[in-house]
Amino acid sequence: WQLLAAGMASCGDLTALLPPSWRLSANADALCMVMAAWDGEMLPLAALPGSAHSTALQLLKDATEVRPALTAPLPLAESLEGVDGLHLR
């Protein structure tokens, strides 16, 4: 990934981005890290499940692999211009 934006959100709001094996076991009240990246062509989206007390650093440290659950296309004209930065709200 060339660029990455990340933040913490309720796992209950990120179910579609969680790996399938974690969807049923994730606590809806727990905090998950949500990530959006730019890979030069698409915007991959991924989430890492945590606990109610997880920090972003703990989740990244414990993750053995991060795989995007979804990829969002960027219109061709915009992708040709390139992406300078990402921001999550």
SSE arrangement:
Elements: E1 3-10, H1 20-23, E2 31-38, E3 42-49, H2 56-62, E4 70-73, H3 76-81
Plain-language structure description:
There is one protein chain. A hairpin with a 3-residue loop joins β2 and β3. By secondary structure, the protein is of the alpha+beta class. It is built from three helices and four strands, in the order βαββαβα. The model has no long low-confidence stretch (mean pLDDT about 80). About 20% of the residues lie in helices and about 30% in strands. It has a four-stranded antiparallel sheet, with helices on one face.
Provide a concise account of the structure shown.
With about 90 residues, the protein is α+β, with helices and mostly antiparallel strands. The chain has helices spanning about 20-25, 55-60, 75-80, and strands at about 5-10, 30-40, 40-50, 70-75.
